[in-house]
Here is the input.
Amino acid sequence: EAGVAQSPRYKIIEKRQSVAFWCNPISGHATLYWYQQILGQGPKLLIQFQNNGVVDDSQLPKDRFSAERLKGVDSTLKIQPAKLEDSAVYLCASSLGTGGEAFFGQGTRLTVV
Amino acid sequence: GENVEQHPSTLSVQEGDSAVIKCTYSDSASNYFPWYKQELGKGPQLIIDIRSNVGEKKDQRIAVTLNKTAKHFSLHITETQPEDSAVYFCAASFSGSARQLTFGSGTQLTVLP
Here is the structure.
């Protein structure tokens, strides 16, 4: 089966610019996660969706980050405006349900200069 | 919230030797403990997991042990091979209505030929 698809793979932007990442989960997976992985650290959950509803966004910096999952399939994560400390790999993961194994995409490496 | 500490941060072993990575967690309610392997430029991939009703689980050369009383769990890799070289992450979660993983900081394992 096809894995979790993410695009773009790499993105370089200047601070205060905006950026968007796209994720297409494994077909049939109801649960979708966005994680932020800063270099040298483990992934940190930003937001979790169940179908098109938000389950948890308590760690999402809502003043600059937003995410949506219209129609309960693919999802976009947006940062506006970006800060230097947003430089990280943004990982999307999906699972069949809330209790299933999470499968990760390759991630989008964001560099803010 | 949950806090997961992982040691060591780097580990070098000779091919054929064993490798052990240890993690401790803080939330006694956590009951699911997966281990992920992340190769360069890729997303984390689940290699083994254990639930709190089990003390040990083995899959070929990989084993995980869990001590709920002490709130720590370990990954054991025997007969290491160069292709085992990667970053390994432990994680913990409570599988209530949603499974949200808290990751450790990672261990860079290098298997020397």
In short: Chain A has a mean pLDDT of 93. DSSP finds no helices and eleven strands in chain A. The longest strand of chain A covers residues 88-95. The interface with chain B takes residues 4, 31, 33, 40-45, 48, 50, 55-56, 91, 93, 95, 98-107 of chain A (CB under 8 Å).
